[in-house]
Amino acid sequence: xxxxxxxxxxxxxxxxxxxxxxxxxxxxxxxxxxxxxxxxxxxxxxxxxxxxxxxxxxxxxxxxxxxxxxxxxxxxxxxxxxxxxxxxxxxxxxxxxxxxxxxxxxxxxxxxxxxxxxxxxxxxxxxxxxxxxxxxxxxxxxxxxxxxxxxxxxxxxxxxxxxxxxxxxxxxxxxxxxxxxxxxxxxxxxxxxxxxxxxxxxxxxxxxxxxxxxxxxxxxxxxxxxxxxxxxxxxxxxxxxxxxxxxxxxxxxxxxxxxxxxxxxxxxxxxxxxxxxxxxxxxxxxxxxxxxxxxxxxxxxxxxxxxxxxxxxxxxxxxxxxxxxxxxxxxxxxxxxxxxxxxxxxxxx
Length: 349
Ligand SMILES: [Zn+2]
Ligand SMILES: [Zn+2]
What we know:
This protein is an alpha/beta fold. Helices cover about 25% and strands about 25% of the residues.
């Protein structure tokens, strides 16, 4: 299912030629591919900076989208550590390999020409995906292939976001947005240092799901004013200090504002969601509270390896809401766009 022109539905391309991997590359038969909110931005062709400003996504069309890939190795060089038939999860955030970030293993922040699968190179909305190097495959034996697919983006991003919060015991974390990422972040946070976890969303059914997954407190931010939520968050933290960290998985002015106003002294706000806009934040509170506001984009290959280890132990399992046939990718994207996905929607080839 290919993106052929900006803003248009994906198009089914029927090809009978199987790509042949060159030396070092690997060919993976896609089992499942997660449908990510980023795909909606990629289809639109731009990211929203607010005040009418946009930046282009920089895609070269046509391209096959899909970056949350679980699959089975179809063809791999004999000297690779994995074998044909092995089940894998694919690390899609592949950099140029030679820039300053790539040589320090921060390929997700590549400053050269990134080769992100499903963004700049053909991805997993397909029967097969060609992976530039076998080292981007993590063995996913012992993980349900449905649960393995979302690890490559929503799982990875939730994992690295929680890691950036540097939570200690007795800390409180606010998670804003209980969709595909937020629901994984709740599990990761509770299974790591087990902080108090509060979740805010505008949808009661998503909040119910967050509670089932271990959230201690939930807030409906459509029904409760920001001031009231921040007051209640203070009330549940020791010495009314406010939350120690907040992760904004939505990324609109209202959610970033809620996150910023909820963190206490020395707190951390991690902005992850790409919905966009421009936030107005009281600047004096940055120094007065000594807070830090970070952005987080996906994660590193090492993060994925660590996350896969946790998933193998059964400590984190992405919530899969439904599975659509690959050729129904547009319907799946529409459903996500309407905010109706309760967890991750997958495509199945
Ligand atoms: Zn994604
Ligand atoms: Zn690079």
